[in-house]
Amino acid sequence: MNTTTTGRILLGGAIAMLALTCGPQIMAHGDMVPQAVDTSDLPDIGEEWLQKNPYSGNARAIEIGTSAYNQNCARCHGLDAISGGIAPDLRYLEPGESGDAWFVERYRKGSSHDGRVLMPPLGDVLGQKAGWAIRAFLETKYTEE
Ligand code: HEC
After folding, report:
1. Smallest Cα–Cα separation from 42: which of 68, 69, 64, 71?
2. Could you report the per-residue pLDDT of 4-38, keeping only the tens digit for each?
3. Are 97 and 103 in contact (CB under 8 A)?
4. What is the mean pLDDT of the segment spanning 38-55?
5. Would you tell me the crossing angle of helices 128-140 and 97-109 to the nearest 10 degrees?
6. Where exactly are the structural domains of the chain?
7. What number is the average pLDDT over the span 48-69?
């Protein structure tokens, strides 16, 4: 085998590797890959979407919600729910039922304007239990505007 052939083979291999390693990263860049949330510790709440947080004040839910928030929401809404300005500051979301209803609406449906996705719908991907756990965490961060 001469050196040119070896070079071609190496180059071919390098391109194949590049394609393999870049694929998932290209998908992950910009569009986020939701991180699954383990909610098995939390009481089941059924399939039907609730309008009121069943986990409000639940310590384990708050713990799960904190990590679920940091993995799935913080990159837009800011670490610890303190927004850097790209997306609304979720500390100002009203506590209690009126805030719950708005929270679950956005969590399930996300937000798009003129075909631009500002926030992806996350409810079906992460599930209802994870959503209410995140909401329970956010309530602990509530700050009056
Ligand atoms: C890609 C960025 C992005 C991610 C990720 C994201 N959001 Fe959002 N979110 C936004 C933007 C932008 C808005 C404002 C939408 C608008 O004004 O129409 C918003 C709005 C909201 C609102 C309504 C806030 C208000 O004051 O009206 C809630 C609640 C919310 N997001 C919760 C979440 C939760 C919970 C997560 C994680 C599970 C999450 N978001 C992940 C970008 C994001």
Report:
1. 64
2. 665 565 555 555 554 444 434 333 344 678 999 99
3. no
4. 97
5. 130
6. 1-31, 35-140
7. 98
DSSP string, the chain: --HHHHHHHHHHHHHHHHHHHHHHHHHHSSS--PPP---TTSPP--SSPPSS-TTTT-HHHHHHHHHHHHHHTHHHH-GGG---SSS--GGGSPSSHHHHHHHHHHHHH-EEETTEEEE---HHHH-HHHHHHHHHHHHHT----
Pocket-testing residue among 73, 83, 102, 145, ligand 1, by greatest number of atoms within 8 A of Cβ: 73
The residue-averaged pLDDT of 49-54 equals 98
Residues with CB under 6 A from ligand 1: 32, 72-73, 75-77, 87-88, 90, 93, 103, 106-107, 111, 118-119, 122, 134
Q: Evaluate whether the domain defined by 35-140 bears CATH number 3.20.20.80.
A: no
